[in-house]
Every structure is written in structure tokens, then in C-alpha cells.
RNA sequence: GUCCCCAUCGUCUAGUGGCCCAGGACGCUGGCCUCUCACGCCGGUAACAGGGGUUCAAAUCCCCUUGGGGACGCCA
């Protein structure tokens, strides 16, 4: 069995010292989708392991037979894969019940646990009574010294210390200590023979050699209980770090009410995974004033040292800003490969990646997400005959005079020896010179005629990408609208 | 109810006793650039929850108050 005690707290200053074996884990319960809070926890654990050249374990905690589903497990795996948070080992907790029970038996043998025949109702009554009397609701330990053996309906409880304090040095919150009077003899094995969460977690973390447990804030109160189990087992607990939760704009715990919670919702919104990870990382962690982190930088710079200790509000605007940044950074070919699905989602034709790779550069600075890019690409992918025209734009810019000029330009464009950006610029320069006009005078009519609306990428490059045939077809159509 | 945790601009945060009458980023906003829309660039707005200490010196340390949150399961 791995010795959990042999895990020194990594010191940032020793960043480049010989690798100590750091083992982290992300342990979601498959009862829903991978939500942003879980995803952020995964990011932290992934980065911590990679930073120290350690191991990142994914453990599906599916011991709740009622609520765990294969669909949820798949959703979590998909979410992590999308974010490119690759795990080194994958475990399903439900398959390890025998192992958990072995440890419970050890505790029974060593006298650190005992059988209890109190029913859930009885325990419930004890708790209520304590509560009204202003005490901590807890099991009163009445079976503690009865020396009961196994039997139907009986559970195994931990014989927890009655006095003293249990404390630990949290990586993000510092020393946390709790009076053992606050804790009760928690159930280790249910009446149906299945181990409980706290027991399973400890056994798994111990046997998997987990050295750093970075998890959500909501687990701080479980930590003392788990430490008690480690002690009963005669083992030293690993290092804990509890990160604060993520809140909605109203400062309440993030929930469906606030809109998208699942990371896949963000994928569908057209957010790039790089932006999502960057955003999640900065939510609760900082490295000076740095906002943008490449994957390499994240790994090199991340330590638990700079984790924040207060809850953070999820800010969609900032995520969008980061995404717009990554939209500009990503190679056109990559975006072109992702775009067809988003075009299809809008009922637009799935254009060829080769063609899209030429369209994308014109749109990168104009779209914050892939969804926006797909929308902005409509006139690039729609057949000429199906291009919709904005009525008020037509009325405003396609005046009789403008149509006359459009026809004249169409003739000139048809006669051009070459139809690329350079020759287009040259053509318009001479045409406008001869007419005594500024480009400004023809730009909007031209734009409306070619794109159907009043805003678009630069006209020369747009025409270049569209090609002579389509430009001419649209000009002809516009003149007769 | 009891215990635990948290508290810097609207938001994410920097700040680890003097460099801070508090810096960066998002947002909002003024301007520049310009064939439109964007991008970009320059500028502006805005915070140490309150009160006591400790100290020559506190956003930084301590205490209290207030306000948030979490936990108290044979759920995870």
C-alpha cells in the first residue's frame, strides 16, 4: 500500500527540484453533467499534477446506485476530453467496494469501529432532540460499547474520539480545526453492506497514493471525518486544499437558474476549450497581472500557492472576452474545421473546410464565438439566389444612382484580367479617380449588393474570397431588386 | 440551532507591514484609426464592509460587529 504520509507539501521555490511523486485526483459523482465548478476543480488538479510531473487520476464516484447514471459518466468524460484535461488513470468507485470493506473489517478488528443496530429513525430522533436542546445534531453512540456483532439491519460505525481536536493545514484556507465533540460516530458501512462515501474516499485515496486533495469548499466539513478515519487506520492523511465555490451573478450558488452550468453548454455556445480552461483557471487563481495563459504556461506557473480563498462570481462577459482572444489566436484551418457544425446549427450550408479557411481570417476579429462566426459567415456560404437582403439597407443604399454605378462597376469587374485583392484595389482606385469619387461614396451600396447588409469585412478581401462569379451574380441581382 | 469558512473597483483579481491617497483585466465610457462592422491604440470611471486594537507605519496582524456561504445523512 502506498504511504500517504510520504507526500511532502510541494514548495513553490522547489519548483525545479527533483520530482516528488505528486498524485492528484478529480472525483466527480456521475449524477449530472460536468458543471463549471467541477471543471475548475479538474483544471486545478490536472495542472497541479502536471506541474510536478505527477499523476492525475479520474475517479468516478458512482456508489450512489440511485442517482448515478452511465449517461452522466459519459458526459463527464466528454467534458474533460473537450477541455483536453487528460487523466492518467481512471477508476470507478463502485467496483472497489470489496476493497473498502476490507478496510472496514480492519477497523472492526482493531477496535476502531463497531456494529450498531440503531435504525435510521432512531438516529433521526436523536438528532432532532439534540437540535432542539441547542446541541450539535449527532448520533449519541449508544451502541459504542455494546460489543455487537454483524446482523441484519446493522451498520458499522467509526469509534471516533470523544474529545480533543482534529485539525489540518489547508492549502488555501490555512489551519482549520474542529472540536471532536462536533463529530459523531459516522457510519462506515451501510446496513446493505455498501461502504459510505467518507470511507470509500479514504480507502481510495490511500490505495491510489493520492498526495493532494484539491476539491470544493463544500467538503471542508468532511475533512475532519476523513482524517479520523486515516488516524484509525494508522495512516497519515494527505494534503488538503479546499477551493471556494463559484457563484452566479446574484452571488448565489451557481445553478440552472443562472443559465449554462454544464461545460458542454459552453461548447454549444461556440466557446473554444482553450478559452474555457483559461477562464476557469483565472477564477480563483492568479499569477500577478497575467490574464492569458498558454497550456505550457499554466503548467509551469500553477501551484496551490496562489489559490484564492473567497468565492468567485462567474462572469460570462469575461469568458466571452477570452474567447474572442482565442478566436483571433487560433489558426484559421482549425476554426474552419470546427465551423461546419455551427453553420449547420443555423441551417446554413456546411461549406468546404478549404473555402472556410479563407473566410475565417476575415471573421476572426469580428466574432467572439464560433456561433457568432457562423452567423457572420452566412453570406459567404449561402448560394447567390438565397442571399437575404436587408430591406432597409436596400432602400437606403441601392438608390437609382447607386444601381447605375453598380452596373458600371460590374462591367469593369467582369473585364478584369485578375480578380484578387490587389487588382480589385487597383480597379476601384482608377474607377473612382475617373468618376471623381471617394471609395466612401460607393462602399455601402457595394456592400449591400454583395453581402445583403450594411456591415461586413473589408470589401476588397470579401470580394476576393467570394470570387468573381459570385460577386457578379450578386451585383446583377442587386441591381434588379 | 451548532460548528466551520469567507470579506480589495459592478465582476475576476494583484497586494504577504512601508514601493498603495491601492495596480491589472472584463464591463461601461470619451477619443483616435476607418469603405461599414469589428480589431487595435490612447484616456476615463470605479474598491480596501464597519468599529476597536497592535505598530514609528495596516488593505496587509489581532479582536468584535455586520454581511455572505458551507456543513451537520445508512448522498456524494
Question: In words, what does this structure look like?
Answer:
The structure is a single chain. This protein has 481 residues and is mainly α. Helix content is 46%, strand content 11%. It is built from 20 helices and 12 strands. The strands form 5 sheets. Strands 1-2-3 form a 3-stranded parallel beta sheet, covered by helices on one side. It has a 3-stranded antiparallel beta sheet with strand order 4-5-8. It binds one RNA strand of 76 nucleotides through helix 4, strand 7, strand 8, helix 5 and strand 12.
Summarize the structure.
The chain has helices at 36-51, 70-82, 97-109, 120-132, 197-207, 222-233, 263-268, 273-282, 295-301, 316-329, 332-345, 353-363, 370-376, 378-381, 391-397, 400-415, 421-435, 439-451, 459-466, 468-479, and strands spanning 23-26, 55-60, 89-92, 113-116, 155-158, 165-170, 174-179, 187-189, 212-216, 239-243, 246-247, 312-313. With 481 residues, the chain is mostly helical.
Amino acid at each position: 500500500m502506498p504511504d500517504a504520509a510520504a507526500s511532502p507539501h510541494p514548495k513553490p521555490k522547489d519548483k525545479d527540484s527533483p520530482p516528488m511523486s505528486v498524485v492528484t485526483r478529480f472525483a466527480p459523482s456521475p449524477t449530472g453533467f460536468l458543471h463549471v465548478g467541477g471543471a475548475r476543480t479538474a483544471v486545478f488538479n490536472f495542472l497541479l499534477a502536471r506541474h510536478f510531473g505527477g499523476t492525475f487520476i479520474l475517479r468516478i464516484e458512482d456508489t450512489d446506485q440511485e442517482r448515478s447514471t452511465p449517461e452522466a459518466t459519459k458526459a463527464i468524460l466528454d467534458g474533460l476530453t473537450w477541455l483536453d484535461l487528460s487523466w492518467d488513470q481512471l477508476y470507478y468507485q463502485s467496483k472497489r467496494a470489496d476493497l473498502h470493506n476490507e478496510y472496514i473489517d480492519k477497523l472492526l478488528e482493531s477496535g476502531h469501529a463497531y456494529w450498531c443496530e440503531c435504525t435510521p429513525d432512531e438516529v433521526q430522533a436523536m438528532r432532532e432532540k439534540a437540535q432542539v436542546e441547542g446541541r450539535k445534531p449527532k448520533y449519541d453512540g449508544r451502541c459504542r460499547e455494546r460489543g455487537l456483532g454483524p446482523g441484519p439491519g446493522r451498520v458499522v460505525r467509526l469509534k471516533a474520539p470523544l474529545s480533543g481536536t482534529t485539525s489540518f493545514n489547508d492549502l488555501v484556507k490555512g489551519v482549520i480545526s474542529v472540536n471532536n465533540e462536533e463529530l459523531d460516530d459516522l457510519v462506515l458501512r451501510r446496513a446493505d453492506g455498501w461502504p459510505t462515501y467518507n470511507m470509500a474516499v479514504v480507502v481510495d485515496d490511500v490505495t491510489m497514493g493520492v498526495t493532494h486533495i484539491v476539491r470544493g469548499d463544500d467538503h471542508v466539513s468532511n475533512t475532519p471525518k476523513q482524517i479520523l478515519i486515516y488516524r484509525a487506520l494508522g495512516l497519515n492523511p494527505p494534503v488538503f486544499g479546499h477551493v471556494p465555490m463559484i457563484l452566479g451573478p446574484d452571488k448565489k450558488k451557481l445553478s440552472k437558474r443562472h443559465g449554462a452550468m454544464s461545460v458542454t453548454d459552453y461548447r454549444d455556445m461556440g466557446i473554444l476549450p482553450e478559452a474555457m480552461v483559461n477562464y476557469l483557471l483565472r477564477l480563483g487563481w492568479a499569477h500577478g497581472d497575467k490574464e492569458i495563459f498558454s497550456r505550457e504556461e499554466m503548467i509551469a506557473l500553477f501551484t496551490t500557492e496562489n489559490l484564492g480563498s473567497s468565492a468567485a462570481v462567474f462572469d460570462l462577459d469575461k469568458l466571452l472576452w477570452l474567447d474572442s482572444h482565442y478566436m483571433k489566436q487560433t489558426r484559421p484551418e482549425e476554426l474552419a474545421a470546427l465551423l461546419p457544425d455551427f453553420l449547420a446549427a443555423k441551417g446554413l450550408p456546411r461549406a468546404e473546410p478549404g473555402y472556410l479557411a479563407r473566410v475565417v481570417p476575415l471573421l476572426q476579429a469580428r466574432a467572439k464565438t464560433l456561433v457568432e462566426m457562423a452567423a457572420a459567415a452566412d453570406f459567404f456560404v449561402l448560394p447567390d439566389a438565397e442571399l437575404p437582403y436587408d430591406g432597409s439597407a436596400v432602400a437606403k443604399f441601392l438608390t437609382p444612382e447607386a444601381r447605375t454605378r453598380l452596373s458600371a462597376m460590374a462591367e469593369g469587374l467582369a473585364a478584369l484580367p485578375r480578380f484578387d485583392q490587389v487588382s480589385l484595389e487597383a480597379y476601384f482606385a482608377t474607377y473612382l479617380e475617373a468618376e471623381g469619387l471617394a471609395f466612401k461614396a460607393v462602399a455601402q451600396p457595394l456592400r449591400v449588393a454583395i453581402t445583403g447588409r450594411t456591415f461586413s469585412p473589408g470589401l476588397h478581401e470579401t470580394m476576393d474570397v467570394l470570387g468573381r462569379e459570385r460577386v457578379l451574380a450578386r451585383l446583377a441581382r442587386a441591381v434588379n431588386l
